[in-house]
Amino acid sequence: MSETWIILGATSAMARAFARKCAENRADLLLLGRDMPELKRIAQDCSLRGASSAEAVAFDARNPAKFAKIIEQATAHSGSLNTAVFVGSMPEQADIDADPTVLDGVVQDSFTGPAQFLHRLAPYLEEREGGTIIGVGSVAGDRGRVGNYVYGAAKAGFHTYLSGLRNRLARKGAHVITVKPGFVDTGMTWGIEGMFLVASPEDVATSLMKAVQKKRNVIYAPWFWRYIMLIIRHIPEFVFKKLSI
Question: N or C: which end of the chain has fewer CB within 10 A?
Answer without folding.
Answer: N
